[in-house]
Amino acid sequence: MSESPALSPPGCEPAVACFKAVFPATQSAIGPVRRRLRGCLERAGLAQIADDVALAASELMTNAVVHGCHGLPSTCKVTLTAEWTGKRLRVAVDDPSDALPAEQEASAYRAGGRGLTLVDALSHRWGVEPGSRGCGKSVWLELDLFAAEERVA
């Protein structure tokens, strides 16, 4: 698993600060990436939203592993990228599948299917874009940081 957190120097507002992790498409890899993301956000001064962002990112990573890499070789990789400025935080999870995610109706008969509903509740926006290399997709969420701080306070 590779990870590259990049934080801005204190007192210096960069165009973008970021965290990136490339990990194997296994459910056991999601927890460590989620914890590293949360820690990176806390160190960057975003502790008040770190838990919500980590939870929503975990849902996107789970969807990528379970659906985006289903039936692919064990060498399949998923990439999580988190970028933020003073105003906005964006988390994107890339997987090799072109199949689009869709919110599902909650059901008492199904254990899963609520992940995107949770992402929608925890973020200000979310969506899907085609993969940057002409295949796959990137499922992303965004939070407006000032609005997120007000929501937590």
The strand count comes to 6
Question: Mind summarizing the main beta sheet?
Answer: 6 strands, antiparallel
Q: Given the C-alpha coordinates, what overall shape results? A: globular
The CATH architecture category equals: 2-Layer Sandwich
Structural class: alpha+beta
How are the strands of the largest sheet arranged?
1-2-3-4-6-5
* Average pLDDT figure: 84
Q: What is the CA-CA span between the terminal residues? A: 35 Å
CATH class placement: Alpha Beta
Which bin fits the share of residues in helices?
A: 25-40%
- What's the name of the CATH homologous superfamily? Histidine kinase-like ATPase, C-terminal domain
Explain what the structure shows.
InterPro entries: Anti-sigma-factor_SerPK (IPR050267), HATPase_C_sf (IPR036890), HATPase_dom (IPR003594). One of its GO terms (molecular function) is ATP binding. Keywords: ATP-binding, Kinase, Nucleotide-binding, Serine/threonine-protein kinase, Transferase. It holds the Pfam family HATPase_c_2. The chain has a single domain, classed as Histidine kinase-like ATPase, C-terminal domain (Heat Shock Protein 90). A hairpin with a 6-residue loop joins strand 5 and strand 6. The longest helix is centred in the middle third of the chain and has 22 residues. It is globular and about 40 Å long. Helix content is 34%, strand content 26%. Helix 1 runs antiparallel to helix 2 and helix 2 packs antiparallel against helix 3. It is an alpha+beta fold. The chain contains 4 helices and 6 strands; from the N terminus they run E-E-H-H-E-E-H-E-E-H. A 6-stranded antiparallel β-sheet has the order 1-2-3-4-6-5.
